[in-house]
Design a protein that fits this description.
It is found in: Cytoplasm, Cytoskeleton, Flagellum axoneme. The chain has about 350 residues and is α/β, with parallel strands linked by helices. It is built from four helices and 13 strands. Helix 2 links the parallel strand 10 (about 260) and strand 11.
């Protein structure tokens, strides 16, 4: 397996967007560990604002000059304008002034007190948007023709509506309050390859019909069932860590590109459920730590028997000894099963003869 595949278990952010906000503050360049985004320091949670009024603090003309950078030609090539805006962590409550800054392409609004970002709809050349750690209840914007990456993590968003931007490749909605996935248009979102929905309130995966999606992060929800996965034929990475899955129904051979599944900390207790993954032709790595099945004595051998093409389980690749042992045990179990079936057949014949004898007597 490649080095990138080896790190899948430790890093959920396998799908890194091709276009990212240029970094002036190094801490934002760090990748979060598996399980979600960085947390607000104590006292900075959104709940602190409940019951108290947030003082108005609009973005003003006086503040803007120090926040603008990256001078570039305008779209028509006739002039120059600043195309990057970084106003993160300024306690802003209003960005109406941005309606006039139509040439902006990279905007960072993270760690403010924003409840409304609709003025951004005027920025039709926007490529990258970061609006993490605000007070947003919706990610809805008018269709942005060039937007490629949008991040709305750690807000109070309850819906996936209004995110149908035709060039969008990476959408981050981690740590919000989404209960159902709705409104994601498979035609308009044909370029979307990474969808992050960790730390929401999803009970099902239904509603995610995105034909070119490659990376899907659904960790730390309350998923009890998997639905609609057969439509994700290009999916390669699926993170389902820390949910409430007991059964693994919902997979099919149509998901022909899926290589890695993280099921850590669910409620999987039987190898018969793991066997349902045998339909996935390219599955090579699987994580089942912190499930009841992982406590069984012959856990690794049992898994490789039902998934012989698997290369890695949890953090370790299968050894040659484990593969040989699994083959021998599989033969032994097949013979035992055959003998048991024969015994059952003979028993049934005896019971039928006894029944006929009793009837004729």
């Amino acid at each position: 397996m490649s080095e990138e595949e080896e790190t899948f278990e430790e890093e959920e952010d396998a799908g890194v967007p091709q276009l990212q906000m240029e970094q002036d503050h190094p801490e934002e360049g760090d990748q979060p560990e598996e399980g979600g985004e960085e947390e607000r320091p104590e006292g900075e949670e959104g709940e602190e604002h409940e019951g108290e009024k947030i003082p108005e603090n609009p973005l003003t003309q006086e503040i803007l000059p120090e926040c603008l950078s990256l001078l570039s030609k305008t779209g028509d090539g006739l002039a120059h304008a600043y195309i990057r805006l970084d106003v993160h962590e300024r306690e802003l409550t209003n960005i109406n002034i941005l309606k006039s800054y139509i040439h902006l392409r990279f905007v960072d609004l993270s760690k403010n007190n924003l409840k409304d970002i609709s003025p951004l709809s005027a920025l039709t050349r926007l490529l990258v948007l970061k609006a993490d750690f605000n007070l947003l209840t919706s990610a809805k914007l008018d269709e942005m023709p060039y937007l490629q990456m949008a991040s709305f993590s750690n807000n109070k968003i309850s819906s996936t509506e209004g995110c149908n931007h035709p060039m969008l490749e990476h959408l981050n909605l981690n740590n919000n309050e989404i209960t159902h996935v709705t409104g994601l248009d498979p035609v308009k979102l044909s370029r979307l390859h990474t969808l992050e929905l960790r730390g929401n309130k999803l009970e099902t995966s239904a509603g995610i019909y995105l034909p070119n999606l490659k990376n899907l992060f659904l960790a730390a929800n309350t998923l009890k069932q998997l639905e609609g996965l057969q439509r994700l034929t290009k999916l390669t990475t699926l993170h389902l860590r820390e949910n409430q899955l007991e059964k693994l129904d919902g997979f099919s051979e149509e998901i022909q590109s899926l290589q890695y599944i993280n099921l850590r900390a669910n409620n999987i207790s039987a190898v018969s459920e793991v066997e349902k993954l045998a339909c996935l032709p390219k599955l090579r790595a699987l994580t089942l730590l912190e499930n009841a099945i992982a406590e069984e004595d012959e856990y690794r051998i049992d898994v490789i028997i039902v998934l012989p093409k698997l290369e890695r389980l949890d953090k370790d690749e299968f050894t040659e000894d484990e593969r040989n042992e699994s083959k021998e045990l599989a033969v032994t179990r097949a013979e035992e099963k055959k003998m048991a079936q024969q015994a059952d057949g003979e028993k049934q014949i005896v019971e039928e003869v006894d029944s006929e004898t009793s009837s004729s007597g």
